[in-house]
Every structure is written in C-alpha cells, then in structure tokens.
C-alpha cells in the first residue's frame, strides 16, 4: 500500500469536507445513480459518470484495485419507457419483454458513449427490472416494501403502497426525514399542495408501488396487485443487494438530493433498521449549455453521441478525451457551462500535453497532483499542477513517466502527438495541411499567401518556427501557444 491515504470528501449530509474513513478498507463501497434509459443520454448525464469514474480510479489507486466495489444502476422502468414500449408493442409477447428489448438498445448506446469517454466499467451495473421480484436474491423491491409495511411506515391504498415520512419520524422518535436536504417535515407539510391524490394519508407520502394496467403498462405480480415500483425504491434495493445495508459513498447529480436521495435514506434506514445508509453523500453540480438550461424546446439539448459523431455542436465532432477533459476542468461541485469555447480550450490543452505524451511510459503519479485530487477532487488545482509538470517534461524527458501517470489518474491516456491525430481530432491534420500549403507558397515566393496562412494558424493558437534542413530546404515546426 502507498503512503497513508489522506482523502477528503465533501459530504452533503454534513455540508463539510471530511476525512474519508471507509467502513472496511479492504472493501470500499460506492453507489452512484445512473440514467433512466428511455433515449440517448445527454451531456448532463455524462457528468456524474465521469466525475465518479475519477473517484473510482482514485479509490483504486489508494486502496488497491481489488478493494473497491462500485455499483452504478440503470433505471430501465419508468413512465416514459412504458409509454414508448407500449407504442411499439406488437402484442406477440408480454409488454415487459418489449420494454426489456427497447432498453437493451438504449443501454448498449449508453455503454458505447461511456467507452468513448474512457469511463471504466463499474463492478456492478444493475438494472432495476432485475431487482423487482427476485426469488434468488435475499433482497428485492417487493420484499423491502413488505418490510416497510410490517414496520408501520408504509401502507397499501387503492393498489398503491405509500411511504409515510411522518410515521418514520414517529417510529424513530427523532425528526430524521429531511436530514440530507436540510428540509423540515413540518414546513414541507405546511407548504404542500392541497390537491393531493385521494389515496394519500399525508401530502408528503411518496409512492413505493403503483398499479399497472395490464392492457397498457408493464408490471409484476405483488401482494398489492399487478403493478410496478416507484423510482426511489429501486436504488434502495439495488444498493442493498449489491453493497449491503450500509456502505461508504453514495453519489449522483445535485438534482437528486430531494426527493430521490432523501427517500432512499428513509426507505433503507427503516427497512434495514440502520441509522444511516451511506457515510458520505456526494453530488455533482448542474450542467448548462452555452449559458442556458438544456432543454429540447430551446434547441440546446445535446446528446453524448451527437458530440462524438455529428457536427451539430460547434460545426464539428469532438473526440472523447476532449469531452472528458472539458468536463473535469470545472470542479465537480460547481455548475458547469458546456460551450464550444471550453471544448476548444480543452483540445488545446490536450495537444500541449500530448507533446510529451506516451502511453508506454509507466510511472508513479506526481505527489502534488495526487494530493490535489485527494482534496475533494480539486481538479482546478490538478490542472495547474499538470501544466507546470508538462513544462518540466518538455525540458526533462525523465519527468515524462510521472507526467503521463498523473494524467492517467484523470482517465486520460496520452499518446505522442504524431499518432494521436485520430484521438485528438482533425486539427493536427488541418495544421499540417496548412503548413504544407505555406511551404509551397514560400517556395513560389508568394509571401502574402505565406503570411496569411501564418496568421490563420496563429488565430488557431498555433505558433510556427521556420528553419532549414541539412540540405538547406525550408522546414517548419509548430507548437501550441500557451
Ligand atoms: Zn438512485
């Protein structure tokens, strides 16, 4: 094991940065809420995938590859998916099978997206539909809901099962519901809407199970009739089955704090009789596109696949490493503005790093970089340190393995610029074409054209250096201006 880890993580539960102390250092456990797979994933979905992938890599570096268990779920049942499955249903097989086939496609696309972003496979990628009723597993959604009913914190009504936060606080004897989101149940009740569904005893009660129409909606048989689970119970069941009743880190986007994560805590703590679900709750900030909230109606909705394979964003496609680097330049808790400009900057950084990149150079990461990363994933500081290290690596080749290993901690593999062209986009080819054109212009003594091309490259952030080869022929080398 390397030097004693000094990992610090910001915990939403306590609103402070804390020393990370795993329940069991031999098996550090992390759960992250994955996407609902009814369509292509958007770039906002990529943020938690990349952020928690960096944390996964860091935990593996600190505790050892075989001592970290990471579960990231797929939500493959929800009303949007149901509607889509029903629309394409041929009625030759159960609607549930239709839904499964529909989501197989979107899951495969999501995996392709993540591969391009160099996101490691988690230890487990559970699908919600495999954990609704599962005879082989000691824990599934139906069994957990049943436990909650037996404990008196949930009740069945008109085919629904509802969880009662009021009963939870009564059972525990302390007001606990709202502890993560720092909301007070009494205030929430006072502010609740008046037109509450008739089967709810209390406005804050939330759905654990709801009835399905067998003609139009997929579902499972349960003690409360044919139906399907609510969204929150899915994560309680998957996390419980794969990581145990308590684990170390629970992550997701900031928009999940309330009600999703608050309700996960309520369900799991009451069902398992524990006082906490995860020790540390981590949330990444919002993502907006070109200064505006991403929305389909505003026309600024961007999928990961569009960025990678089409020219809809900024008139060109973008390589995975550029997207990944752009995502990490902003600290994970800050809001991020996804802009063409930021992607261009990330690409320039990747070029300048690739000049001293070599995937064959294996070394230990830099202590300073590691320390910055261990400080609640302070990637802004990591980048500052990497820029300095890169400059050293240009001058001193012996620094290159350390630099390459440090960049690899972020999940970015550097290759020498000469063979990185395919990975870092078409820009290298474009630069070289322009340089050849300029050399031709100089040979033809067309200096106006030669100067025009030099200015064009300068505008792209490329500096040229003219010289002569051994035979006295003009040569030009280039580098990225910093
Ligand atoms: Zn979840």
Characterize the structure shown.
This protein is an alpha/beta fold and 482 residues long. The chain folds into 3 domains: 21-284, HUPs (Rossmann fold, 3-Layer(aba) Sandwich); 287-420, no CATH class; 427-480, no CATH class. The chain has helices at 43-63, 79-87, 95-116, 141-150, 165-172, 185-191, 231-243, 257-272, 304-309, 320-329, 340-354, 367-374, 379-395, 400-408, 417-420, 427-443, 447-459; strands spanning 8-11, 16-19, 28-32, 68-72, 154-157, 160-163, 206-211, 227-229, 247-253, 278-284, 287-289, 292-293, 336-338, 462-468, 474-480. The chain has a 4-stranded parallel sheet, sandwiched between helices. The protein is elongated. It binds zinc ion (ZN). Zinc ion is lined by residues 33, 235, 260.
